[in-house]
């Protein structure tokens, strides 16, 4: 089976037919399903959508149970956690709903981990890391755009000379380069290529 448009988070099962991995949807399986918006709601109290999944957390005074429900806990109420808590061997521990968050110095609120600056995020060639609250994503570098080639998504060079997104002078030639472009004044003209006289 070949899928000319590609299957980003899924597998090609027939001619241009994708079977999406759990948590993803769309013709090319490139859209994240917001499980928090589904009926019935997957979490009893609060829900946080994550890339391809979701996390449940409880209101203050409740603790998250293994089945995703929230149980009343007097000890949790006393600790005053931002995103609910759990009791481990008699000890109350505040929770963060995502691996991209960590407990702050007060042990009750969650602060963002910048995966891009700490090096925890690895983006493939021609992609740059963009930090978000609780996570990150990889975006094509400037001069590249996301395109589907032979069933896979890749960041490919934008030919600024063809797309006419260059800023070359009317009296200059545009030369495409990998991820960028150059401007060269035509014969009989001199200048930077952006300005030719």
Structural descriptors:
197 residues, mainly beta, Laminin, two-stranded antiparallel sheet, 18 strands, elongated, calcium ion binding, extracellular matrix, signal, developmental protein, secreted
Describe this structure in words.
The protein has 197 residues and is mainly beta. Among the domains are: 34-112, Laminin (Ribbon), CATH 2.10.25; 158-196, Laminin (Ribbon), CATH 2.10.25.10. 7% of the residues lie in helices and 40% in strands. The chain is built from 3 helices and 18 strands. It has helices at residues 74-79, 115-118, 160-163; strands at 10-14, 17-20, 24-25, 31-32, 46-50, 53-57, 62-64, 70-72, 85-88, 91-94, 101-103, 110-112, 127-132, 135-140, 144-149, 152-157, 172-177, 180-185. The strands form 9 sheets. It has a two-stranded antiparallel sheet with strand order 1-2. Strand 9 and strand 10 (91-94) form a beta hairpin. The radius of gyration is 25 Å and the shape is elongated. The chain starts with 9 loop residues before the first strand and ends in a 12-residue tail after the last strand. The mean pLDDT is 86.
Strand order of the largest sheet: 1-2
Mean pLDDT: 86
**DSSP helix count?**
3
Describe the global form: elongated
Précis, in short:
With 197 residues, the chain is mainly beta.
Topology:
Elements lengths: L9 E5 L2 E4 L3 E2 L5 E2 L13 E5 L2 E5 L4 E3 L5 E3 L1 H6 L5 E4 L2 E4 L6 E3 L6 E3 L2 H4 L8 E6 L2 E6 L3 E6 L2 E6 L2 H4 L8 E6 L2 E6 L12
């Amino acid at each position: 089976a070949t899928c000319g448009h590609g299957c980003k988070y899924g597998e090609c099962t027939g001619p241009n037919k994708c079977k999406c991995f759990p948590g993803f949807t769309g013709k090319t399986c490139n859209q994240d399903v917001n499980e928090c918006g589904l009926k019935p709601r997957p979490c009893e109290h609060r829900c946080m959508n994550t890339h391809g999944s979701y996390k449940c957390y409880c209101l203050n005074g409740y603790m998250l149970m293994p089945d995703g429900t929230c149980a009343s806990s007097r000890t949790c109420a006393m600790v005053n956690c931002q995103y609910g808590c759990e009791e481990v061997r008699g000890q109350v521990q505040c929770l963060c709903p995502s691996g991209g968050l960590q407990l702050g110095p007060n042990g009750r609120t969650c602060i963002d981990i910048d995966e891009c600056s700490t090096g925890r995020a690895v983006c493939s060639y021609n992609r740059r890391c963009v930090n978000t609250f609780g996570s990150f994503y990889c975006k094509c570098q400037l001069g590249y755009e996301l395109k589907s080639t032979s069933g896979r998504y890749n960041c490919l060079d934008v030919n600024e000379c063809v797309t006419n997104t260059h800023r070359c002078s009317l009296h200059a030639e545009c030369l495409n380069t990998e991820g960028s472009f150059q401007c060269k004044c035509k014969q009989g003209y001199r200048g930077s290529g952006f300005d030719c006289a």
